[in-house]
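so the lab meeting is tmrw and i was supposed to have these ready like two days ago... anyway. pasting both below. for each one the top line is the aa sequence and the line under it is the structure tokens. i havent really looked at them closely yet so no promises
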Amino acid sequence: QVQLTESGGDAVQAGGSLRLICAIAGRTTSDLTVAWFRRAPGKDRELVAAVAWTLGSTVYGDSVKGRFTISRDNPGNTVALQMSSLKPEDTAEYYCGAARGWDPNRSSASYNSWGQGTVVTVSS
């Protein structure tokens, strides 16, 4: 099990960019998957992106494809979510989660470690 801490949430205007960081503490195993999810008030939790720690395989939610990029810095023990062309619909609290094994179709229920979240607010 790892411990996750998110940072980088802020208020930004539509069309702007933001970079979120998930800091990972504890043992990072070769089969680790780290993902970003988000949840807006009154909405279900939604997958934003996920990355395989070792191989770098990625998967993105349909609503962010072409605008967001997930990446990992193995020596630095961080996973970044680079967000560009932000829209008001991106406004949400963003969470970092960790799981074992790579499955691009896995649900949030299979993630066993979570951070506390960081808030992103996009204004028009």
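ok protien two:
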Amino acid sequence: QLQLVESGGGLVQPGGSLTLSCAGTGPYFDHYTIGWFRQVPGKKREGVACVAGAGGNKHYFPSARGDVFVYRDNANNTAYLEMNKLEPEDTALYLCAAGIFGECLSGPNGMQLWGRGTLVAVSS
């Protein structure tokens, strides 16, 4: 079965940048849309971005603050989320998930496979 593992989180100063990775192991990675979501304690999980299996179709959620760019390298079974101009409000656990593009557009509930997440902390 496909498994997803996030990495790349950490502490960054306001205004800084991070690129998160979502590494897939197992079959059919390029068949799946990969979505990026974030979770803050006490708040609902919300969407950040979606990228379809071949990498051509992308969606950025309006509620996701800041300058973000989603892309993938299927030869290495990895999807990425580049985040720039980060602010303290972007502090969250960031998770990637596999599913269908149309379901990803609606938010996290329809996604099939989830990683455990990587923590991003934006602070001076």
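from a quick look at the 2nd one: The chain is about 5% helix and 50% strand. The chain has a mean pLDDT of 96. will dig more after coffe
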